[in-house]
């Protein structure tokens, strides 16, 4: 089998470049050194390192398609401790492939740290939620912007399927709704919403109801 030496050199030069200039390079250098000392380094492992991730407060969430090589498991908990330190964070999580379910659970495994509670700041709004239990939808920015342009000073709003408060909080904080009834059946989302209401000091203008929105609006409101 012939190996294209110029291509091999190019790959090696790229790795060296990463090593000197990027967080990816620091990950590569440190983890390759640790794995080599254990006698488990494989050249394919560098392709398994994450090149991007999500940051939520002091937690970083890795994509689902990294650290899949079986040799990583041989490093045990030391691996996640090293990655957490190298990424300059305090907690570390990793996504799993999301399976469909009615609660929209995030399927994130906590790899390092005590819990999954994070704070996401969106303009003037603070969202508190547990990333291992609640899903944060980043695709509703335009709708939240639209809500922020409303004047709801004298309006009472009912938010069905409120979740962690994607729309409840903008109605209260940006649109200044007189009162909001927030309904959801997921107890983890309800807990997150209550924490966010407290953090944003708007709990007095919101009634949180746990239950099926389709029934609650007819039975309790």
Automatic annotation (TrEMBL):
Signal peptide: none annotated. It holds the Pfam family TRM5-TYW2_MTfase. Coiled coil: none annotated. It comes from Wuchereria bancrofti. Residues 53-221 form the SAM-dependent methyltransferase TRM5/TYW2-type domain. Pathway: tRNA modification; wybutosine-tRNA(Phe) biosynthesis. Gene3D superfamilies: Met-10+ protein-like domains, Vaccinia Virus protein VP39. This is tRNA(Phe) (4-demethylwyosine(37)-C(7)) aminocarboxypropyltransferase. Its EC number is 2.5.1.114. One of its GO terms (biological process) is tRNA methylation. It is an enzyme of class 2 (transferase). It catalyses: 4-demethylwyosine(37) in tRNA(Phe) + S-adenosyl-L-methionine = 4-demethyl-7-[(3S)-3-amino-3-carboxypropyl]wyosine(37) in tRNA(Phe) + S-methyl-5'-thioadenosine + H(+). GO terms for molecular function: tRNA 4-demethylwyosine alpha-amino-alpha-carboxypropyltransferase activity; tRNA methyltransferase activity. Keywords: S-adenosyl-L-methionine, Transferase, tRNA processing. One of its GO terms (cellular component) is cytoplasm. It comes from the Eukaryota.
